[in-house]
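Bit of a strange request maybe. I'm writing a small parser for structure token strings and I need a real example to test against, not something I typed by hand. Could someone generate the tokens for this chain?
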Amino acid sequence: MKKDIHPAYYPNATIQCACGKTYHVGSAKKETEVEICASCHPFYTGKEKLIDTAGRVEKFRAKQKRVSVKK
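Reply from user aminoacidic:
Good idea to test on real output. This should exercise your parser:
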């Protein structure tokens, strides 16, 4: 590596998730805050979280039902 062109490397940087989980990883930033991680993401947990605004989810599910009935 060339000298004096790379950012400082923190081998024990902290990643803090909104759910409360904390990870320690190597990074160029000492501390980072994220909104979602593997501990709270629906894909990894298997739990579905829906944030529905203006009934969009219900409209979509109704469309799915109508299409599945026609098949």
